[in-house]
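PROTEIN ENTRY
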Amino acid sequence: MGVQVDQPLALLLLPVWAAFIWWTARSTVRLTGGRKAAAIGMRAFILLLLIAVAAGVQPYVTQKRLNIVFVADRSASLDADAFAGAWIAKAIAAKGERDEAGVVGAGLDAAVERTLSPDGLLDEGRFSFRAQIDGRFTDLSRALQMASGMLPEEGGRIVLLSDGEENAGDLMRQARLLKDRGIAVDVLPAAPKQRTDAALEEMKVPKSLRQGESFTIELQVASTFAGPAELRIYADDTELARSEVELEQGANRFVIRTMAKEPGFHRFRAELYAADDEQPANNAAYAFSRVSGPPAVLIVEGEEGSSANLVSALSGSLIASDVIPPERLPLELADYAKYDSIVLNNVPATRIGEKPMQWITRAVGDFGVGLVKVGGQDSYGLGGYFKTPIEEALPVYMDLQGKRQIPSLGLVLIIDRSGSMSDGKLELAKEAAMRTVELLRDQDTVGVLAFDHTPWWVVEPTRLTDRDDVLSRIQGIQPDGGTEIYTALAEGYGKLRQVDAQRKHIILLTDGQSSTAPDYGALTKRITDANMTLSTVAVGDGADTQLLESLANQGKGRYYFTNDQSTLPAIFSRETAMMSRTYIVERTFTPAVGQAGDWAPLFSSGLPAVDAYIATTAKETAEVALLTPEGDPLLARWQYGSGRSVAWTSDLTGQWSSGWIGWPGFPETFVQWVKWTFPQFYSSPYEVSVQAEGGKARLAIVAEGQTESGGGTLDATVSGEAGTEMSLRPVATAPGEYEAVLPHAEPGAYLVRIGSEEGGTTTGFVVPYSPEYRIAGGDGAAKLERVAELTGGRVLDPERPEEAFQAEPAVTRLTTDIRRALLIAALLLWLCDIALRRVSLPWRRLAAALAGLAPGRRSAAGQKPAAGGSAAAAMTRLARRKRDAGEFYAPATGKPPGGAGAAAGGTAAEKATPQAAAAPPADTVPPPHDTAAGSPPAAARAAAPAVPGNSPGSRPESARSAPPDAPPRDDGADADAGSTMSRLLAAKKRSQR
């Protein structure tokens, strides 16, 4: 046993403590005798206790014990419950009474299964693992770090139960850190789980292929059994081949021959099926390849057969093309990446939908796919492309910025706000209305009427002088109520009739049916008679399509039906644009050459005339190759992200461009437009390599020719098999070198687009299944032995679990925190110190009483006192009381309490006689004389009353010894005795105060 001092610097207060005690002993003058010594000693002890608390004084005892934390590998390659659970239970059962044991589970993460404790197990046969562990990978370093944190300061040991096949973290680095801390790691090598398993270990596909090229797919399969199996090969989720094979125990190699068909990036996947296979997690392998050859172009046409001129021009240059209607557009980004360019030939945005437009824009901006937009009556502004993703990717704006002589427009939007318009319909309707407001000009008039069973003006028809206020009011529309179309339509007509505008138009949107069936014919006639037009939009199958179509026909407008509510903004913006025929400029002209660049030779021999086009506005950084007489762009191009786009604002069917279709130079000119948009892979300044490990994909990027830091930032867009995307920001690790990490990458083949302002590169990488599921083992046992050797640990015997606690125990110091007890003791002593100094008690009487408790004194006290002894005893006690009072006050004043006896409250004789006031102190009264038993002492007789019958002048014998000049008392008593008695009583009262 010993004493531990946590803060030894606090002991420097001891000299200060000694000096304070010395000073207190010299300065304390009010206390004398034993009280002074007790007070000084008590205060010294209080201060000593406080110094002990500040120094952190703690008693301790030492004992020898082992602190061991077991780290159990719970990854998929081992059966922790069957192997580690039983072994750990036996080891804990063999530990000493004072030894402590803890358990940590290890996988990709780590978890504490049992805290360090001396307790045994409830079930001594098996330790039960309960924590949730990700067993797809093995990170032993993380588990060892957690185990070391559980050990106390005096250290301990770690027992690692694993096969040593780590595939995440750095086990040897963590072992070196444990060595520096003096923590030994004992290891117990475990054999991998034995199961019937067949695993696809590798799939090899050429990284680059030519279209039509025959190639082989090589598969490496490992199996623990022999038997039949089936291999299936997929290219972009389409089954490419299927083959029955015969597995042999051990390594197997299979080759499947196929042909590269479609150009672009392709993902390949192989799957293995065997009846006896117990582990399906390792039955898939992945690869990717880029097929080059004749470029491929996707043509999306708005009218069937309208793209014949385009297909003929491309095929003449050996460029393959696929022609589809907008309803068949792909829904995954990878399907767009197969093409070199996409041509939108007079397609309205209302037929494409919001999601496909987003995919097309991403294919252009992120993967370098080209985009060519061809005009017509359903294109650009008239096609509803205002504020759409396609407008963002094109070199022109859909609205007519800065145009003059545009007719004024009065527009009323009637929007159904009934309860059925919830679930996002009303939100998109509001977005459509706001987009329409943004498309209008300041001199236009707009009104927004919401209706349920009654109409309600959100915005009464007004000029767009405060556009933000109008947008804010539209945003506040909420769904509620039923549907009453007629009343709302009549209210909108009535207000629009009062508007002064050159063109007036009503757009009615609803998803339901009117609760009444009035005469709509008379109302639509009044609308057309007032030179207004009416268009209707039916949303969903629940709408009264027959009524809405009839209203649009009678109102000389257009009828729209959509099940895709995302097209509502495009419908509204298209309607708004069509109300102003100024968007279509119908006049025959010869285009003027502008910034033609490398296209200039195409126009050097002259250009054919154009009969009409759709008016647009060129973007600031666009290159306008051909212009109209009004200065509008006829042909423009620009760079958008990693891709390029071209805008031709006339048509290519011959309706507006018959001269161009018949022009001999048209096929080559159109092909050059399309080729200019092809991905620019040859100009990429980046080389990309990918390493997949531990559930993560690490991208290493090298910028060619960049030798200095500050080369700009890069962006990386990763596309997975399921259409998922993730944007990464590579970090510069050295001049011209970058790195990005894709966390939690699931097994599969990925496409990655890496680029900056200077260009970009598209490539692929593969994330295989975790090495945890591989059949062939590595050098895990040898690695565990190196860990034990490095840290000073042992290689344990699987058959002897008790060896775990047979190491040299550590000396453990068990301390007891007594600071709280010391503080409580100091507080109690402080209260006693206050009482000792401030409270005056009959200390001598208490001492006498305690002495009287002794056995000898108790027998003497039990004897009956002699007659007259009580009066003498009283006189003695009073004399001592006066003496005590004198001792208490004498050191401070140097005279009896109260000064003169008269001031102290003596008798009348004392107040009148100076000699009485100057009576000697109480301790000078002579003690009573001893007399024979039964005879009262003289003092007692003096205090006794006069015997009846005596003359008034008679007095006790003791009175005759009084001073001769003492005056007699009025009551005839002895004046001296009365004076003494008065003084003693007064002293007693003062001491009691």
Summary: Residues 869-893 form the longest helix (25 residues). The mean pLDDT is 81.
